[in-house]
Specification:
heterodimer, A: alpha/beta, Rossmann fold, 3 helices, globular, B: alpha/beta, 5-stranded parallel sheet, 4-stranded parallel sheet, 39% helix
Amino acid sequence: MSAKVKPVPREWQQVMDEDTISRAISRMSFEIVEKDRDLSNLAVVGIRTGGEYLGKRLHQEIQRIEGVEIPYGVIDITLYRDDLLSAQSQPTLRGTDLPFRIAGSRIVLVDDVLFTGRTIRSALDAIIDFGRPKTVELAVLVDRGHRELPIQADYVGKRVACDRSQLVRVRLSEMGYKDGAYLINREER
Amino acid sequence: MVDHLLGIHGLSKSDLYRYLDAAHSFVEVSERDIKKVPTLRGKTIIHVFFEPSTRTLASFDIAGKRLSADTINISAGSSSVKKGETLLDTVRTLESMNPDVLVIRHSESGAAQFAAKHLSRAAVVNAGDGAHEHPTQALLDLLTLRQHFAKQKRGIEGLKIGFVGDVVHSRVARSNVWAHLALGNQVRLIGPSTLVPNDFARVFKSDSVSVEHDLARGLEDLDVVVCLRMQLERQDQNFVPNLDEYSKEYCVSERLLKRYAPNSVVLHPGPMNRGTEISGEVADGPRSLIRRQVNNGVAVRMAVLYLLARTTESREEFSV
C-alpha cells in the first residue's frame, strides 16, 4: 500500500531513528506549548526545504495536543542568503507563504539541522521584512554545533557532536525515506 | 550558464521555464508590504535607453530597486549620444564604471548583441532592439498565460496563438513567436499583407507558423489573441490606407471573438490604441489579461536580473 521506501547509503551513521524523531517532535511540541499557554498569536514557520516537513509535523502535533488551530507558514530564504552571489550553482527559488499577520505574532521557526547559524540569520531578516513579530523562537531537530554567528535554538531534538567537515542529514517519510538523522564522513559524501 | 539575455531565439523550453519559475517567487515579493529583498545589494545596474520608453524603463528600474541593486537611468536625449558619440564608445564608457548589468534599448536591430560582444564584465539584457527582439516582454506574456491557464489546471504548451496587426515591425511578436515555438505551440500571424508578408513565416523555419490575412479565419479556435499596436508614427509610410480602414478589417472586437474564438484570452503589449487594433470592450472585458501583463513585468525583470547578475562574480573567478 505504501510506496517503496528509499534506502540511505550504508556508510551513513544513524544518530536518530524513527522513534527518537517522533519522541523529539512530541517533546518539543509540549515544550513550545508549556513556555506560553496563550497560543492566540502562535505561528509555526518551516524554513525551506529542510524545515518544511518538520515544521508541519510540529504544527500538527501542537494542534492535536491543544485542540486549537494555529497558522502554519513556509519561508524560502534563498534571496536572503549571504553566500548567494558567490555560489557556483543556482539555488532554486521555492517561494515564501506566510498566511498570517506577522506583527505581534509569536513565531516558532523550524529547521532540520542547526549548524553555522547563517540560515537562521537569513530567516530572521526575511521575517522582519514582512513585519515585526512579538517574538521569534527556534526549534531544530539536530543541533550539530560549529556556530559562526551568535545564534541558538530554543528547542532541540538532539545534540550531535561531530567534526566541522562531517555532514548531518535528515531524511523523512515525506521525502520517501524512513525517518532518520545521519552523520556522514567527508569521504563518503 | 546564461550570461546575457539578448533574445528568446535559441532558448530552450527549460530555459524559459527557469525564468518563469523564478518570476513566480518574485510576484510574491511585489505583493508584500516591504517590497524589497537584499539579493542584489551592492550590484550596479545601468539602463541605457536610446529609444524613449516610460513603462519598460520604469519596470526595469523598480525590478532592480526591489532587489536592492543601485540603478542608474540614462536616456539618449540627455546623454552624449546627442553629441555624436557612437554606440560602441557609449557602451565602453559605461563599462568603465563597472556595472554588473547593462539594460539596453535601441532602435537598431542587433544593438544588444553588439554591446554584449564588446563588453567583458557586464551582463547585457536586451530591452528591445529595433524590430529584432524584446525578450522580457515575451517572458512576461508567457508568465501571464501560465498564471491564467493554471486556473484551468493547464500549462502553456499545446496552445494556438494568434498575433494580429503590425507583425513585420514588431520585436514583441518575434520574441513571442520564438517562445511559443520552443513550447511547441501553433502560431498564426494575422493582418494585411503589407504588415504580415506572405512569406514572413519562413523567418521562423517552422511548420507551426502560418500567415492569414482574413481576421475571422485567423481568429478561428485560437486560445490566445495578441493584439499588436498600430504604430501611429509609421502612418506616413502608407502600410495601410488609413487607420479607420485598418480598424474596420482588423480591429479585434468582442463580437468577432465570441463567434470565432469564444474561449480565447487577449494580450496586448501596450500602449493600446483603443478602437484601432483592439476594441475598448475587449480591452476592459473578462478576456483581457492586459493588466496582469503589466503587473508581471516587474516580477519577470526581477527574475532576469536575479539569474544574470549573479554570474558575473563567478565568471571572474572561474573563467577559463
